[in-house]
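Hi R.,

Here are the chain sequences for the assembly we discussed:
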Amino acid sequence: MRGIYVHVPFCVRKCGYCDFYSVAGGGEEERDRFPALVEREMDRIVRSYPGEAVVPADTVYFGGGTPTVLGPDRLLRLLRSVRARFPVAEDAEISVEANPGTVTGEEIAGLREGGFNRVSIGVQSFRKETLSALGRIHSVEDVRAAYRYARKAGFSSVGIDLIFGNPGQAEEEWRADLDLAVTFLPDHVSAYALSPEPGTPIHGAIDRGETALPDDDAVARMYADAREILTGAGYRHYEISNFARPGKECRHNLKYWRREGYLGLGPSAHGLLFPGEGAPYGLRTANPPSLSDYALALGEERLPWGSVHTCSREDTWKESLIFGLRMSEGVSPASIEKKNGPPPEPVRGAVEKLIGSGLLLQSEDRLQLPERYWFVSNEVLQRLA
Ligand code: SF4
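And here is the predicted structure of the full complex:
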């Protein structure tokens, strides 16, 4: 079964490190127009690829941006529209990202009643100085309130997102964030090292010497702290940056890492269609990171795909390894081969080199990235690209 991702491109204000596509401070009119655009995109897909209308989905994920800026009525209308066009399994995981300070208790309860069953709260930190250094709009009180509302509403999974390696952040402050996080008993925790994107205010401030990130060794120790504290509290470190109570892994994100199919709807959304057995190996789609270009394409009765890439066998192998090796379960080369045929020579050679140098572990039918390399996974995995 596949997943469906809807990118909601609105935020109250841009955070100091973020270059995800979103419109900050947009008005009600723009938000009112948004659900009809996504509905038009879904209709366009169904008209262009009628077979897509019958592919069942078992995950639907509303991300952003800040989906909760759209408000529950528009989010629930969109969820109903997805269900009206595509078969969504009874027991599907239906997630929404919610940022503290953008949702009331009543609104979050409305989302639960309307069919969302998993919520991911963008906490980032429990320390007001860190939140302010990141340019987040919310307070620590907003975090506590959002979590309380989500639990009260009865979501079957409540996750929190944290960021470490923040400007001026001391290691004890990060450990304190982790210690506090586990007392909330979230089902899922994502912990990402801050990586300010070029062109963002924090990146500019670092370039000008006005602020500094902790050095690499300190950030590596913070990563080790996350692993120690969260696994010690019963979470499974199932992906490089993700921890979950057993059975509470994010099923939607597992699709990305396992290279299963998903529709990507909304501006800047990416999708992977038809990743079946053998050729064609899948079609990677990318919508433009611009609400106006997205609306223009749909107004012209076009698919809003800014780029489309037909995957080759080599692409498929590389993607399966690069994404799959992010998970603790690793990958099964035999399963990839069964689906896609034997690995092309450059891929086979790169894998053998990594095994030979101890950067990949081979056991029975699986390949895994040793845990000691998780923090530097990008450097290892790029050797497969
Ligand atoms: S709320 Fe999220 S998507 Fe919006 S600007 Fe901040 S980090 Fe980026």
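Residues 327-385 form one domain. The chain has a mean pLDDT of 95.

Let me know if anything looks off.

Best,
T.
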